[in-house]
């Protein structure tokens, strides 16, 4: 009945084993970053839009950014936007489609543990953010930006902002359909871009709305960065606190609700 | 397939006992028992029989509602971290970043393992070299299947789960997949494959488990399963109107013979070399040249249809 058997070659002889964890996580982070940098739509979101906004609004006086040079107002906002574009929008969309196409499912059967995958995703987000920050800083300096303040406060704001946006992005990716995530993540990006103090100062909004908008993670991040970088303020505890609450709530909800398939 | 060239019959690689898995009100797996020993085990069944659910429970994707599952002696959910490096998984579809290239993804999976296979060789063997810089979403269905197969074996696992590995493949790719499964088996890798292709199960499997409505309804080697059915048949053609009484006399008692249509004769019974010789020498004595002579064995397909019914399922 069976027509052929194979000779033993030893080529496929079992030799199972997981690679060392750091190597697995590094490989995963490298692949995730490569996928992100190869994706045109993602680059539009994470690089092109922030750069355009920075250049356009710094050179043309469209929005009244208050006293002082507009680049000093805009750069912290655009940096906050860059963090949001990568940690929230980009990560939500990419993870949503990875879930949809069974990538998360397949990786779950690999030796890479789930927390290793999440660590790699975070590393990939951080690498992308470093590239964004370097690029935007160079452009802003070329446009005449002169930052102030404590670098540690800036780093802390960026990290907490990343945690807050990652939690929300993963919550969306792990619960909604990929198409719904795509639409919702882009919509939220647009709304927060307008209403989160990125290019339009919050004091242009009615005073009733200001209080609510100020509690958004994007507002806390852009406001905190602006306080430090523009006005040389010390630790912006209020903004850090808001971001920390979003981070804890978002990551906890994502951990609880995330569906891998 | 004889087992002396392959792995020894020893400890089961998969042990499923009274597995029940429900999705909402639908019971996908309904008290399924399955023991798979080293070698190749085919899980055969119609669509919706519960094959994929069973395999995915073994892979640790689903928690049983009741019953126990042990894979390589481990609990796939509770001891997943120990089990995962030792198994290879081929999903029915997907599993690859849509923007990744075939080679890139295969290299990545290889990097997650301590002693992976040579990626170049595997790419060459499965004909994935031509995929070049094409991203996954632009690969053909067959290329995607072969990539998924390569990803399942690249980590040098002890046990490989293949969920319909040749569905939608062209005959060449199908052969290539079969050859790889045979080589894996020869080197001591156990394989659990789901399929509804009977010939695939007959070609590859040491053991076949037929699943229907969430239960294993028959299990055994292809030979055992086929032998279990009705007797075999021999047909030959000759001049119409031959007198077969003398043939009946020459045949063993438990055989029957008849001219079913003019010029076509049929012998039912235990068809073996002796019976074939009896028939041909009878033909020679009567100056009959049997233009066509055929032994019709019961195939796995006959057994399968007998067991699971011939009606279309909804």
CATH uppermost class of the largest domain in chain B: Alpha Beta
State the oligomer: heterodimer
Tell how many strands the DSSP assignment of chain A holds. Answer: 0
Question: Do you know the CATH topology of the largest domain in chain B?
Answer: Rossmann fold
What structural category do the secondary elements of chain A indicate? mainly alpha
- The helix content of chain B is 25-40%
Strand content of chain B: 25-35%
Number of H- or I-type helical stretches of chain B: 11
CATH H level, superfamily name of the largest domain in chain B: P-loop containing nucleotide triphosphate hydrolases
Terminal residue distance of chain A = 40 Å
What share of the residues of chain A does DSSP label as strand, in percent?
under 5%
Mean pLDDT of chain A equals 93
Order of H and E elements of chain A: HHHHHHHHHH
Number of continuous helical runs of chain A: 10
Return residue spans of chain B where pLDDT drops below 50 for at least 5 consecutive residues: 1-7
What structural category do the secondary elements of chain B indicate?
Answer: alpha/beta
Order of helices and strands of chain B: EEEHEHEHHHEHEHEEHEHEEHEH
Strand order of the largest sheet of chain B: 5-6-7-3-8-9
Q: What would the principal axes of the Cα set say about the shape of chain A?
A: elongated
Distance between the termini of chain B: 35 Å
Largest sheet of chain B: 6 strands, mixed
Describe the protein's architecture and organization.
The complex is a heterodimer of chains A (261) and B (314). Chain A is an all-alpha fold. Chain A has one domain (21-59, 66-257). Chain A has ten helices and no strands. Chain A has helices at residues 21-38, 40-59, 70-100, 103-108, 114-142, 151-175, 178-195, 207-213, 217-231, 237-257. In chain A, helix 1 (21-38) packs across helix 5, helix 2 runs antiparallel to helix 3 (70-100) and helix 3 runs parallel beside helix 6. The radius of gyration of chain A is 21 Å and the shape is elongated. The model of chain A has no long low-confidence stretch (mean pLDDT 93). Chain B is α/β, with parallel strands linked by helices and 314 residues long. In chain B, 32% of the residues lie in helices and 26% in strands. Chain B contains eleven helices and 13 strands. Chain B has a six-stranded mixed beta sheet with strand order 5-6-7-3-8-9, sandwiched between helices. Chain B has a four-stranded antiparallel beta sheet with strand order 11-12-10-13, with no helix packed on it. The radius of gyration of chain B is 24 Å and the shape is elongated. Chains A and B meet through helix 1 and helix 4 of A and helix 3, helix 6, helix 7 and helix 8 of B.
């Amino acid at each position: 009945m069976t027509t052929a058997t194979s000779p033993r070659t030893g080529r496929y002889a079992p030799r199972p084993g997981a690679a060392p964890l750091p190597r697995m996580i590094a490989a995963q982070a490298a692949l995730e970053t490569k996928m992100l940098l190869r994706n045109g739509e993602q680059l539009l979101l994470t690089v092109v839009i922030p750069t355009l906004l920075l250049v356009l609004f710094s050179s043309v006086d469209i929005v009244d950014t208050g006293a002082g040079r507009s680049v000093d107002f805009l750069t912290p906002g655009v940096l906050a936007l860059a963090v949001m574009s990568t940690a929230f929008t980009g990560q939500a969309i990419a993870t949503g489609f990875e879930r949809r196409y069974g990538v998360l499912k397949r990786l779950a059967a690999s030796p890479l543990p789930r927390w290793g995958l999440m660590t790699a995703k975070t590393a990939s987000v951080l690498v992308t953010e470093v590239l964004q920050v370097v690029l935007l800083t160079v452009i802003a300096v070329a446009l005449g930006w002169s930052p102030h303040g404590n670098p540690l406060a800036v780093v802390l704001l960026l990290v907490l902002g990343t945690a807050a946006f990652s939690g929300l992005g993963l919550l969306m990716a792990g619960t909604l359909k990929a198409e719904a995530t795509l639409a919702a993540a882009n919509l939220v990006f647009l709304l927060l871009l307008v209403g989160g103090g990125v290019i339009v100062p919050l004091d242009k909004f009615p005073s009733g709305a200001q209080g609510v908008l100020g509690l958004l993670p994007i507002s806390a991040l852009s406001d905190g960065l602006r306080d430090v970088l523009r006005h040389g303020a010390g630790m912006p505890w209020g903004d850090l606190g808001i971001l920390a609450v979003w981070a804890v709530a978002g990551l906890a909800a994502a951990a609880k609700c995330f569906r891998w398939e | 397939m004889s087992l002396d060239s392959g792995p020894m019959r020893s400890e089961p690689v998969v042990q499923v006992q009274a597995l029940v898995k429900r999705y909402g009100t639908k019971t996908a797996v309904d008290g399924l028992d399955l023991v798979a020993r080293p070698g190749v085990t085919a899980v055969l069944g119609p669509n919706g029989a519960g094959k994929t659910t069973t395999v995915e429970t073994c892979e640790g994707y689903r928690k049983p509602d009741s019953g126990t599952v042990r894979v390589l002696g481990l609990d796939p959910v509770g001891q997943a971290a120990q089990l995962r490096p030792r198994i290879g998984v081929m999903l029915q579809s997907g599993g690859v970043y849509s923007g990744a290239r075939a080679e890139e993804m295969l290299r990545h999976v290889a990097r997650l393992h301590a002693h992976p296979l040579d990626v170049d060789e595997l790419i060459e063997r499965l004909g994935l070299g031509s995929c070049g810089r094409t991203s996954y979403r632009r690969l053909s269905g067959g290329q995607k299947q072969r990539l998924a197969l390569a990803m399942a074996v690249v980590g040098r696992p002890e046990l490989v789960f293949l969920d319909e590995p040749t569905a939608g493949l062209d005959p060449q790719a199908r052969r290539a997949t079969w050859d790889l499964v045979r080589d894996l088996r020869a080197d001591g890798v156990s394989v659990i494959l789901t399929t509804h292709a009977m010939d695939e199960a007959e070609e590859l499997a040491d053991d076949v488990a037929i699943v229907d409505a969430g239960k294993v309804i028959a299990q055994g080697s292809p030979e055992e399963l086929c032998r279990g059915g009705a007797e075999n048949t021999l047909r030959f053609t000759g001049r119409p109107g031959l007198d077969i009484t003398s043939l009946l006399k020459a045949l063993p008692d438990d055989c029957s013979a008849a001219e079913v249509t003019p010029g076509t004769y049929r012998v039912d019974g235990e068809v073996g070399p002796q019976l074939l010789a009896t028939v041909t020498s009878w033909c020679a004595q009567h100056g009959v040249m049997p233009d066509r002579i055929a032994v019709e064995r019961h195939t796995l397909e006959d057994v399968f249809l007998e067991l699971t019914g011939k009606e279309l399922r909804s």
